Amino acid sequence: MATPVRATDNSSPPPDTQLPDPDSGSRSRTRRQRPSGRSSLRSTLYRFDLKAIPYVFIAPFFLTFAAFGLFPLIYTGWLSLHRVELGGSSQWKGLENYSSLATSEFFWNALANTFTIGVISTVPQLLMALGLAHLLNYRLRGRGFFRVAILAPYATSIAAATLVFAQLFNTDYGLINTVLGWVGFDPVSWESSKWPAQIAISVIVTWRWTGYNALIYLAAMQAVPQDLYEAAALDGASRWRQFLSVTIPSIRPTILFTVIVSTIGATQLFGEPMLFGGSVGISGGSGNQFQTLSLLMYEKGWVTGALGQASAIAWVMLLLLLLIGGIQALITRSHQNRDLRRRRTSGSVGPMRKKAGS
């Protein structure tokens, strides 16, 4: 049978063409739609690797947190609603443990001691840390040595530091009373009196944590742009004025962070007062003059055996920390809103001044 041939523009016959086989296209489509078993397994593993491997990497953290953080928190909340004693069965009490805390003289005494020790240890600690960081921020000879030296108290164990300070504040033969006797003061009973005992414990806390906070402040100060200091120096500002007007506003978020961390540490204060008191350290002295919430929780749980009341104290501490954190968050937001309004006001006043000047 003859095949029709069309002439091209140059009067040359077209090249031989071959009609496509209809079965070949269907076979290729079938081959693409039905991959082999090895390639299908490879693609499945690739999708699993792309989507599931990140969760596998972070799974150890969540498993550890669930085992040692979330479960104890929930179980402690369950215990706080029961009457539980060591070696005995639990009995549902509802909010009776919390109501008993509200009428307990020991609880309010421990709460007041926690607050006072926290204030007289946190405020001087952070002020001294700011001063040390400001000094180390300048070019001093041997800055590296001083940075390591101020961190040495933090590396010291709580037991070693507390035992040394307990000897220094000893009423009979302590170095502090000896120095006070040279000046002309009478010996101070640092362990049996309320305020001297709290001051001694606060000194231990301040000595351990001042260098740690100073390094945090130093890192924040070194991140402040030098242009701000140069502009302040050109305006005639002294170093003290630069510290108040440039350094403090620039590191305000860091200061709030250290305040929150120090507040949490003061609420959980346990090792220093227990070791300082010696044989009566768990009860916070002979008259509970320096018993904190952590010591009261330990005494209720492991000395008295009332695990339900101890769990209730733990949850009250958690609620106090959340309340303090919420108040500090509100203060931070108010400062940010005030700074934003100030920037908007200065930005709107600037063009008006330029227009009036022109």
Shape: globular
Structural class: mainly alpha
SS field, number of helical segments: 14
Percentage of residues in helical conformation: over 70%
Strand order of the largest sheet: 1-2
> What are the secondary-structure elements, in order, as H or E?
HHEEHHHHHHHHHHHH
Mean pLDDT: 83
Poorly predicted tracts of residues: 1-19, 349-358
Distance between the termini: 97 Å
The strand count comes to 2
- Which percent range describes the beta-strand content? under 5%
Q: How would a textbook summarize the main sheet?
A: 2 strands, antiparallel
Q: What is the radius of gyration?
A: 35 Å
Question: What topology emerges from the helices and strands here?
Answer:
Layout lengths: L21 H12 L3 H44 L1 E2 L7 E2 L3 H7 L2 H32 L6 H13 L2 H11 L6 H9 L10 H29 L3 H9 L4 H12 L1 H16 L3 H7 L15 H12 L2 H51 L1
Antiparallel strand pairs: 1-2
Helix pairs in contact: 2-14, 4-8, 4-11, 5-8, 6-8, 6-12, 11-14, 13-14
